[in-house]
Amino acid sequence: MNIIENEFKQSYIRSLKITRGKSLCNATTLDKYLALCNLIREYIFENWVKTNEIYEENSEKQVYYFSMEFLMGKLLVSNLINLGIKDICENALKELNISLNELEEFEDDMGLGNGGLGRLAACFLDSMASIDVPGHGIGIRYNYGFFKQKIVNGYQIEHPDYWLEKENPWEVKRQDEAIRVKFYGNVKMEYKDNKLVFIHQDYESVLAIPYDVPIVGYKNNKVNTLRLWSVKAEDEFDYHMFSRGEYHRAVENKLNAEAICNTLYPDDSHEKGKLLRLKQEYFLVCAGVKSIVNQYKKLGKDLTQFHKHIAIHINDTHPSLAIPELMRILIDEEGLGWDQAWEITKNTISYTNHTIMSEALEKWDINLFKKLLPRIFMIIEEIDRRFRQEIKNTKNTSIISDNNIKMANLSIIGSHSVNGVAQLHTEILKKKELKDFYIIYPNKFNNKTNGIAHRRWLLKCNPLLADLISQTIGTEWICDPIRLVDLAKFKKDSYIKEKLDLVKRNNKLNLSKLISRKNSINIDPDSIFDVQIKRIHEYKRQTLNIFNVIHLYNTILENPNLDIHPRTFIFSGKAAPGYFMAKKIIKLINTVADKINNDKRVKDKIKVVFMEDYSVSLAEKIIPACDVSEQISTTTKEASGTGNMKFMMNGAITIATLDGANIEIAKAVGEDNIVLFGIRAKEFYDLQGSYNCLDIYNNDLRVKKVLDSLVNGFLTQDHLEFEPLYSSIIKNNDQYFILKDFNSYINAQNKIDKLYKNKDKWLEMAVVNIAHSGIFSSDNTIYEYAKEIWNVSCR
Ligand SMILES: *Cc1c(COP(=O)(O)O)cnc(C)c1O
Question: Could you tell me the EC number(s) of this protein (predicted)?
Answer without folding.
Answer: 2.4.1.1
